[in-house]
Design brief:
The complex is a heterodimer of chains A (270) and B (335).
Chain A (H helix, E strand, L loop, with lengths): L6 E12 L6 E12 L3 E5 L6 H9 L6 E6 L2 E2 L5 H8 L2 E4 L13 H11 L7 H14 L4 H4 L9 H15 L3 E5 L7 H18 L2 E6 L2 H7 L2 E6 L2 E7 H6 L4 H9 L13
Parallel strand pairs in A: 3-8, 3-9, 6-7, 7-8
Antiparallel strand pairs in A: 1-2, 1-4, 4-5, 9-10
Chain B lengths: L3 E13 L5 E13 L3 E5 L6 H8 L7 E10 L2 E2 L5 H8 L4 E4 L13 H11 L6 H14 L16 H12 L6 E5 L7 H16 L5 E5 L3 H7 L2 E6 L2 E7 H6 L4 H7 L52 E2 L5 E2 L5 H9 L2
Classes of the chains: A alpha/beta (270), B alpha/beta (335).
């Protein structure tokens, strides 16, 4: 079946400049991309390559200096707070640090209730809301009954990150942006989180954008990979193409920097 | 066999909580590290890796308390010593420790060189400023850090640079054992590699006698260490060479950990990640039988009641499970 893939999110000439004069930094430099619907995309680069800035622009948290972002073929309009909130129904994010992702004054039920309200479920009967929240928690292996009346900081890092996924499960966005979602938790919970993200994607058919410095992780999860260096996209293509047959020196270096187990890890290159 | 620099026999330490409850985070751990060798400790969060690292220093402060066991560094037992003597005479010279967030150890109001002067003074070396500077300069040169770092404040350095600076300061007195607790997990892959390269170089140049490396990143552990110990719920569950543990784990928990390895190599994408379900047990009331029984795929009724001892194979590999080697291999074959 030759089904044409729909472009979900695309950017053209996207640029972000911080500061001016001598302090002027080009964080993201004329970046073009198109992410297709239902695809898992990774954006890989080392610290300071501009990947988080790009993520913030995609989320509408900061405005691009130049260029535009289109969502489902339409140029995105987030000029007012109302429009921005409308946009956020379609794009959601999971951040690196689960400890600072929550409002510390809100209990866990409030966090999840908010998501139901955002999806227009404000007038549902209370039992129905509880049912939805229980389902969402069940999806990430948490027990809702044990979580009510608790604050997010009473959970462990892995549990918090799972609660984040439960939120996404309730919100069912078109795009999920995961900014280093596993870099602060251990390898074993990482496997759990990744499995859950994959299940979630299958469940609600969203586009998943993975931002990471770990090219091993990017290779493992994604369909296509974008490599960023100094604010520019230097290489992109399918995961197999980019990782197994890298063209750029920078990509090769990134791959080299990750410890391997089947081949020798070359330490002489730093 | 080389000289044994660190020998730990049946070390047990506990935490005492605010409610006077005891948490046995390190339970009868024995290990040996030879000169010039690196020992790795693997395990998920909360299984006692970092507590073991703290316990190995022989310097205990509340809520961590020493219960029993011996720590012998180069023939000297450091467990019975007075804490102040340990701090001055053992830490830094015999045992040095780098915590995960080592970079936060630097004093933000001091230049790196002034910080080094303070460190030397604590250890009563009585050297004058010129000598200290010379010593620091030579050390920084050996480990590949620019001399200019000495004149900078910590805020002027990047994360990876700070981490390497702290490691350099930790090995200033050429410790016999360096304990590195997740020294690179807060860094990106490139800085991580620099830190690892530096640690390897320290070993080669003989600036440290041996290395204990703690991390949950198994590919990293495999590349850095000679032997690996897998810890679970305060106990050691398996010990072997790095190759054995990574490619041919015996204990079901070690086997589970290896299922979470991700490396950018061909064929990796076809394997499904397998996470171990559940969480480690609460160590306030550790299970009486095998501690892993609750989460083990191959659990037997007997596992939950009898305490399980170590089994030793011919090649010196040990593991803690009621099954024999052949039984375990068969179980893994059948999935």
């Amino acid at each position: 079946m030759a089904e044409e893939k729909q472009v979900c999110l695309s950017g053209k000439g996207l640029t972000k400049v911080f500061g001016f004069g001598r302090q002027r930094t080009l964080a993201v430099d004329h970046v073009d991309f198109s992410f297709y619907e239902g695809e898992i995309v990774s954006i890989v680069g080392e610290s300071g390559s501009g990947k988080t800035t790009l993520a913030k622009m995609l989320l509408g948290l900061i405005n691009p200096t130049e260029g535009e972002i289109a969502f489902q073929g339409q140029v995105r309009d987030i000029s007012s707070q109302k429009k921005r909130k409308e946009y956020w129904k379609n794009i959601q994010a999971i951040f690196q640090d689960p400890f600072s992702s929550y409002n510390i004054f809100n209990k866990i039920d409030a966090v999840l209730l908010d998501c139901i309200h955002m999806r227009g479920g404000r007038n549902l009967p209370h039992e129905k809301k509880v049912e939805l929240m229980t389902e969402a928690c069940g999806f990430v292996n948490l027990k809702f009954a044990e979580l009510t009346n608790k604050y997010p900081f009473e959970l462990s890092g892995g549990q918090m990150q799972r609660l984040m996924i439960a939120r996404i499960f309730l919100l069912k966005p078109k795009v999920l942006l995961a900014d280093e979602p596993t870099s602060m938790i251990d390898a074993c919970s990482r496997a759990t989180i990744l499995d859950m993200l994959m299940d979630l994607r299958r469940e609600i058919g969203m586009t998943l954008i993975f931002i990471t410095h770990d090219i091993g992780l990017a290779y493992f999860v994604s369909d296509s990979v974008y490599i960023m260096e100094h604010g520019k996209i230097v290489e992109h293509g399918s995961a197999d193409e980019v990782i197994l047959n890298p063209k750029e020196v920078y990509t090769r270096r990134l791959i080299n920097d990750v410890p391997k187990i089947y081949e020798e890890w070359d330490l002489s290159t730093v | 066999m080389g000289k044994i620099l660190l020998e730990v026999r049946e070390l047990t330490t506990k935490y005492v909580t605010r409610f006077r409850e005891d948490v046995y985070a390190v339970d009868h751990v024995s290990l040996q590290v030879e000169e010039g060798k690196a020992l790795g400790i693997a395990g998920e969060s909360g299984c006692g890796k970092s507590t073991l690292a703290l316990s190995l220093m022989g310097y205990y402060f509340a809520p961590l308390h020493y219960i029993s066991g011996d720590i012998i560094v180069d023939g000297r037992n450091i467990t019975g010593m007075d804490p102040d003597t340990v701090r001055k005479a053992v830490l830094g010279r015999d045992v040095a420790y780098i915590p995960q967030a080592a970079m936060n150890a630097l004093n933000p109001t001091q230049k790196v060189i002034n910080f080094i002067e303070d460190v030397i003074k604590v250890h009563d070396l009585g050297a004058d400023k010129k000598e200290i500077y010379e010593r620091a300069r030579i050390l920084f040169e050996t480990v590949g850090l620019p001399e200019s770092v000495l004149h900078k404040y910590p805020v002027e350095l990047s994360g990876g640079m700070k981490q390497r600076t702290v490691i350099a300061i930790a090995v200033l007195l050429s410790p016999k054992v360096l304990i590195a607790d997740e020294p690179s997990s807060a860094l990106d892959v490139t800085s991580q590699k620099m830190v690892i390269k530096m640690l390897m170089r320290l070993m080669e140049d003989g600036l440290i006698g041996s290395l204990i490396f703690i991390t949950h990143e198994l590919p990293l552990l495999y590349n850095v260490t000679d032997d690996i110990m897998v810890m679970y719920a305060g106990q050691i569950v398996e010990k072997g060479t790095a190759r054995e543990i990574v490619f041919d784990p015996l204990h079901p928990y070690a086997k589970g950990l290896m299922g979470s390895i991700i490396v950018p190599e061909e064929g990796v994408r076809d394997v499904k990640l397998t996470a171990i379900p559940g969480a480690p047990p609460n160590l306030k009331k550790p299970p009486s039988g095998c501690r892993f029984a609750e989460r083990c795929k191959y659990v037997q009724p007997l596992c939950k009641v009898t305490s399980v001892g170590f089994k030793e194979l011919d090649n010196g590999r040990t593991y803690r499970c009621i099954f024999s080697e052949a039984e375990l291999r068969e179980a893994y074959q059948n999935g």
